[in-house]
């Protein structure tokens, strides 16, 4: 039996995920798909993909048959949900997990981490995450996802941000931070202003949230789809 | 914890013998009932929807009030004789029989199981046989609504294990398929699929199908039953998912129905209210407060204008109850997201009257505030359920409140996270620019803490909508360069939508008038 090439493996993986998504869409209330959904969680972790619908489907099945629940899988789902912030996926998952399970140590930690992120306490978040490496390092892409979220919230808030504030939020300092900033300046439209070290200011890209004048007057725009509804009437 | 969550049903302490003491003879069929079933049977065979509706809505109620105030209707075996022993009619009659029982009396476990069996039989017929009936939307809605209600009731009943008799436990073990969550969900799903309702609604948008325009009725000689049950099952699925705490999937199930328009869901007031109540609640839990406020506002205004027409209807009490609950939810939404300009004048004045004082206290975010959030949430929330079967081995406990407690706890947790936002809002309303240092001073926190508070404000007021886009919920907003600059947002009046609705409405009126044949 020959070894599959990576490309073949990837194609097979794509086939599997397609089938799982189909299952969730067409036959979600079916206890037999539980193992497929669990495998899919592991696949999301290893291939750095994400599917909220499939994970909610699994959490529901765990709700229907608590004896079959795997806390390890649930923990992975929650870490993935955390990585989806600012979407409220983490809360959506918690709504489906029984209280006594949420009292377990690893879940209490995850809830604390979520709390820090929800309330902009990035320094406390990174401190706590460092203490819980075993939980967060199990999921590749975690650090980058949280950094993306941090930058998202900062971009809603700041036109200009002092370097130390940014550094604390994304947990990068010194030379690494210099490199990071150069990369963002080259690719994402960041502008690095005067000063070195702590005095440096970073200008974030303009959007409608930190530059209100950019807000489109979406007030009275009516989507074309709605107008097509009255075409038969207009004749 | 508020105790007004306790389920309204009285414990089912009595059994068959007790009921017979009340002088109930299941085999006695009064003349008026013979007449009732005879006529109803004939109207169904003749597909006379108007007459069916009159009998279903009015006659059934009148007879129930007069003859069956606190006893069940005659058994189906006794009336079968007067309707040619027609299988389908008997299933429909039994469905009404059980519904009456649940409403006026307390079902025993055996009766709950029998009702489940009846639904299975009835649904199998509709799903797998060609059913040549046209039934009123009210009746079809009531079937789905009652099905979900009995499921919810069963889960609540089953979770109270403490005082169960040996006999009850034996029955529960034996009939573990009855009201099984998989069964309930799969029936609703089966209706949606077999009826092809999603494709029908899609094709209707392109003018290739007629469904909404005929209120779901089939004017080409066919049956409306499967299609309309499929349609209402989407609302049923939304409701079940809310009971389970899965708001995301619930909303997904409702997606094919466009709630910005009239539709079959508005043809029955019970369906209209249930849809919007659960839609609003799900959006509240998803932190999409503006969306929830908009929909609650619309439905509350609608109820205000139309409730007088439903005073005699059997649904009147339910309408009033849901009305009050939605005011409570609206009060919660507006306390978390003070966009009062989204609320119509009439609704606002009603809201002030009912919850004005409580809203003021909620926005203070002290201990008292949390107690009020708790109280309103507990009053207005759905009756959450634990869907899994109990373990019969452990010491028998009551766990019927577990699901509710979890949802409440997580909700209050979210409220707590938003605690400091109220303070920020007050200052932002007063200043157009202010330095971080000064604001930190006024709020009595250090600058790093202020920064986290401001980030929280931004994060909490900018929700992620169903398409993954960021939308701002903020009534007052800001941005920071060297200072904090405050931005006042203007209220959005949607004239476009209003005109579209009126155009469609007028067309509907003209069509109705055209249909009237003058003699």
From TrEMBL, chain A:
Subcellular location(s) per record: Cytoplasm
GO process annotations (BP): formation of cytoplasmic translation initiation complex; regulation of translational initiation
Main function: Component of the eukaryotic translation initiation factor 3 (eIF-3) complex, which is involved in protein synthesis of a specialized repertoire of mRNAs and, together with other initiation factors, stimulates binding of mRNA and methionyl-tRNAi to the 40S ribosome. The eIF-3 complex specifically targets and initiates translation of a subset of mRNAs involved in cell proliferation.
Domain of life: Eukaryota
Quaternary structure annotation from Swiss-Prot or TrEMBL: Component of the eukaryotic translation initiation factor 3 (eIF-3) complex.
Pfam families assigned to the protein according to its UniProt record, in alphabetical order: CSN8_PSD8_EIF3K
InterPro entries in alphabetical order: ARM-type_fold, CSN8_PSD8_EIF3K, eIF3k, PCI_dom, Transl_init_fac_sub12_N_euk, WH-like_DNA-bd_sf, WH_DNA-bd_sf
Similarity comment text for this entry: Belongs to the eIF-3 subunit K family.
All copies of domain PCI, residue ranges: 50-209
PROSITE patterns registered for this protein in UniProt: PCI
Annotated source species: Theobroma cacao (Cacao)
Name of the protein this chain belongs to: Eukaryotic translation initiation factor 3 subunit K
From TrEMBL, chain B:
Compartment(s) of residence: Cytoplasm
One function term, GO molecular function aspect: translation initiation factor activity
Protein keywords: Cytoplasm, Initiation factor, Protein biosynthesis
GO biological process per UniProt: formation of cytoplasmic translation initiation complex
Cellular component terms per the entry's GO annotation: eukaryotic 43S preinitiation complex; eukaryotic 48S preinitiation complex; eukaryotic translation initiation factor 3 complex
Primary location group: cytoplasm
PCI domain span: 295-494
Pfam families, per the entry: Paf67 (PF10255)
Membership in a protein family: Belongs to the eIF-3 subunit L family.
Record text on subunit structure and interactions: Component of the eukaryotic translation initiation factor 3 (eIF-3) complex.
Main function: Component of the eukaryotic translation initiation factor 3 (eIF-3) complex, which is involved in protein synthesis of a specialized repertoire of mRNAs and, together with other initiation factors, stimulates binding of mRNA and methionyl-tRNAi to the 40S ribosome. The eIF-3 complex specifically targets and initiates translation of a subset of mRNAs involved in cell proliferation.
Name of this protein: Eukaryotic translation initiation factor 3 subunit L
Species whose genome carries this gene: Theobroma cacao
């Amino acid at each position: 039996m020959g070894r599959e090439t990576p490309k073949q493996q990837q194609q097979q993986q794509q086939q599997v995920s397609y089938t799982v998504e189909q299952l969730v869409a067409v036959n979600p209330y079916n206890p037999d798909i539980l193992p497929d959904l669990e495998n899919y969680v592991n696949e999301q972790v290893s291939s750095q993909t994400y599917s909220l619908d499939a994970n909610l489907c699994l959490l529901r099945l765990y709700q229907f048959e608590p004896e079959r629940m795997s806390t390890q899988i649930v923990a992975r789902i929650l870490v993935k949900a955390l990585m989806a912030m600012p979407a409220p996926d983490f809360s959506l998952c918690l709504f489906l997990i029984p209280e006594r399970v949420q009292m377990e140590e690893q879940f209490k930690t995850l809830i604390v981490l979520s709390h820090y992120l929800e309330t902009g306490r990035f320094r406390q978040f990174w401190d706590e995450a460092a203490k819980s490496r075993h939980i967060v390092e199990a999921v590749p892409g975690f650090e980058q996802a949280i950094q993306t979220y941090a930058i998202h919230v900062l971009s809603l808030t700041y036109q200009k941000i002092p370097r130390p504030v940014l550094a604390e939020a994304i947990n990068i300092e010194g030379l690494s931070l210099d490199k990071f900033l150069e990369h963002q300046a080259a690719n994402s439209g960041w502008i690095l202003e005067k000063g070195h070290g702590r005095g440096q200011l970073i200008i974030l890209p303009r959007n409608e949230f930190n530059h209100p004048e950019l807000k489109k007057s979406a007030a009275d725009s009516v989507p074309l789809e709605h107008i097509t509804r009255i075409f038969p009437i207009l004749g | 914890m508020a105790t007004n969550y306790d389920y309204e049903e009285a414990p089912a302490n009595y059994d068959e013998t007790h009921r017979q003491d009340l002088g109930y003879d299941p085999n006695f069929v009064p003349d008026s009932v013979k007449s009732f079933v005879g006529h109803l049977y004939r109207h169904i065979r003749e597909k006379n929807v108007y007459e069916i509706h009159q009998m279903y809505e009015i006659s059934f109620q009148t007879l129930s009030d007069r003859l069956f105030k606190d006893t069940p209707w005659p058994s189906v075996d006794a009336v079968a004789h007067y309707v040619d022993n027609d299988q389908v009619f008997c299933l429909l009659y039994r469905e009404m029989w059980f519904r009456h029982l649940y409403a006026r009396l307390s079902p025993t476990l055996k009766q709950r199981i029998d009702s489940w069996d009846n639904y299975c039989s009835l649904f199998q017929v509709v799903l797998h046989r060609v059913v040549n009936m046209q039934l009123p939307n009210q009746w079809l809605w009531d079937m789905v609504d009652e099905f979900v209600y009995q499921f919810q009731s069963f889960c609540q009943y089953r979770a109270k294990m403490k005082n169960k008799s040996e006999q009850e436990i034996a029955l529960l073990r034996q009939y573990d398929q009855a009201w099984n969550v998989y069964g309930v969900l799969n029936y609703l799903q089966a209706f949606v699929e077999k009826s092809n309702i999603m494709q029908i609604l899609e094709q209707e948008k392109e003018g290739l199908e007629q469904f909404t325009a005929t209120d779901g009725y089939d004017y080409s000689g066919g049956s409306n039953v499967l299609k309309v049950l499929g349609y209402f099952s989407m609302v049923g699925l939304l409701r079940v998912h809310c009971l389970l705490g899965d708001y995301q999937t619930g909303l997904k199930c409702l997606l094919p129905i466009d709630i910005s328009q009239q539709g079959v869901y508005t043809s029955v007031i019970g369906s209209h209210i249930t849809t919007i109540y659960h839609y609003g609640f799900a959006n509240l839990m998803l932190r999409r407060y503006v969306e929830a406020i908009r929909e609650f506002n619309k439905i509350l205004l609608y109820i205000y204008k139309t409730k007088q027409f439903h005073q005699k209807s059997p649904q009147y009490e339910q309408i009033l109850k849901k009305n009050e609950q939605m005011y409570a939810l609206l009060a919660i939404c507006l306390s978390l997201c003070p966009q009062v300009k989204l609320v119509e004048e009439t609704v606002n004045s009603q809201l002030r009257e009912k919850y004005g004082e409580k809203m003021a206290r909620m926005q203070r975010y002290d201990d008292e505030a949390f107690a009020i959030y708790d109280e309103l949430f507990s009053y207005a929330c759905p009756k959450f359920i634990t869907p899994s079967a109990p373990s019969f081995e452990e010491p028998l406990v009551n766990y019927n409140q577990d699901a509710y407690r979890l949802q409440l706890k997580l909700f209050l947790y979210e409220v707590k996270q938003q605690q400091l936002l109220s303070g920020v809002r007050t200052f932002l309303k007063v200043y157009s620019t202010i330095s971080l240092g000064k604001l930190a001073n006024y709020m009595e926190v250090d600058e790093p803490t202020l920064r986290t508070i401001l980030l929280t404000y931004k994060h909490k007021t900018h929700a992620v909508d169903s398409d993954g886009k960021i939308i701002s919920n903020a009534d007052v907003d800001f941005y920071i360069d060297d200072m904090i600059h405050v931005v006042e947002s203007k209220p959005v009046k949607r004239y476009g939508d209003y005109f579209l609705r009126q155009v469609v409405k007028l067309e509907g009126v003209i069509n109705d008038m055209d249909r009237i044949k003058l003699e």
